[in-house]
Write a sequence for this structure.
């Protein structure tokens, strides 16, 4: 059984997720920790629960989701995986990070690429990789069918969707990703979002003003 722990970091109010199971192996998804106090929260949680961090993953590589990449890689000696189309976005962060108030951002290299259909394994657990572009060119999400949850990044929010006005974003592509990849997962699937509260596929299908489907 996968346990999901979330942390809210930085002025972007970004959600960082740590997933672990009964083996105590764990993965970290989208570390937004930048300040020393934020890094201490993650390390304390990992130490208190005696977790063994085995993977670092990015759903996508906008600045708010990658601020802690270097710290996590160095602290826990893990490799970073994300989609290949996100590499230019990650490389660009260093050029503009100071403009957003992060002058001490340290770049981390991607170690391997992840594609749709790949399976992320840790402990006794598995996650399916979904390719869901639109907010960014290579955005991916992580779906667990037995426990019926999806770590969705900035694709679908409670009552909203990811912005599409950043480089590589496309509104029509994002809506297509939601309709073709998220909505078929099942109404009872919980979506853990990159910002804000979690939601369910069923709720967003019914009432999301950007992408709801007429259920009549």
């Amino acid at each position: 059984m996968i346990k999901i722990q979330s942390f809210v970091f930085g002025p972007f109010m970004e959600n960082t997720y740590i997933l672990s199971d009964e083996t105590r192996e764990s993965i970290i998804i989208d570390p937004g920790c930048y300040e020393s106090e934020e890094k201490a929260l993650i390390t304390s949680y990992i130490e208190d629960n005696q977790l063994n961090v085995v993977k670092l993953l990015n759903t996508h590589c906008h600045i708010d989701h990658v601020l802690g990449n270097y710290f996590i890689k160095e602290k826990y000696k893990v490799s970073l995986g994300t989609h290949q189309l996100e590499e230019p976005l990650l490389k660009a962060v260093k050029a503009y990070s100071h403009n957003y108030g992060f002058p001490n951002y340290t770049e981390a290299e991607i170690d391997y690429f992840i594609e749709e259909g790949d399976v992320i394994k840790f402990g006794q657990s598995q996650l399916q990789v979904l390719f869901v572009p639109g907010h960014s060119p290579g955005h991916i999400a992580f779906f667990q069918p037995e426990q019926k949850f999806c770590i969705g990044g900035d694709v679908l929010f409670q009552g909203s969707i990811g912005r599409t006005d950043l480089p590589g974003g496309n509104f029509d592509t994002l809506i297509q990703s939601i309709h073709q990849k998220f909505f078929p997962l099942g109404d009872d699937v919980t979506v853990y979002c990159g910002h804000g509260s979690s939601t369910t596929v069923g709720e967003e299908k019914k009432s999301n003003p950007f992408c709801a489907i007429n259920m009549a």
Summary: The chain has a mean pLDDT of 97. The chain has one domain: 3-207.
